[in-house]
Amino acid sequence: xxxxxxxxxxxxxxxxxxxxxxxxxxxxxxxxxxxxxxxxxxxxxxxxxxxxxxxxxxxxxxxxxxxxxxxxxxxxxxxxxxxxxxxxxxxxxxxxxxxxxxxxxxxxxxxxxxxx
Amino acid sequence: xxxxxxxxxxxxxxxxxxxxxxxxxxxxxxxxxxxxxxxxxxxxxxxxxxxxxxxxxxxxxxxxxxxxxxxxxxxxxxxxxxxxxxxxxxxxxxxxxxxxxxxxxxxxxxxx
Lengths: 116, 112
Description:
heterodimer; A: mainly beta; globular; B: mainly beta; 6-stranded mixed β-sheet
């Protein structure tokens, strides 16, 4: 597709369940980013991939959060044993290269996660 | 000091006026700067990028960069109610590890 694709667009689940969020970056984009945005708040960086390695995992809030990426393609963000404070919009972005450092990020539409 | 700082607003301007949005950053070595617009309930969309000192114009938008003073600004001429959104400043910092840092955004309200 032409843009960053995220699925599902909305997810409602019960506290304690695991959830998996998917991001399909723009074709050819080597860098991929995950952010969390709580209602009315700014972007909270979670993790960044260059190819399938993650040079910066510093933003993952706890060990309940993990992410992986297959090659330079799809990434999944997994949240285990969800808590109500995990309710937020999870945004994925991609860019064409990190070493050519002037490339902007392009965002998907996000996954709105609600924990009951 | 935050790495990228923006006034949260809201900044209210009348329709047709110039809206001026400002952003300061702490890493003097930063080279790449971006402005994103985020409508309520939507994801951020890139509207401008700037890499060199001075002004860069794109339609009603002008980005201004002053690396010596470590600020970047966005001017919106002939503001329209449809410009009402949150504007996010983003900076690529290369000090230490490569980092793409967003400010928390300035909420702009254009009053009809």
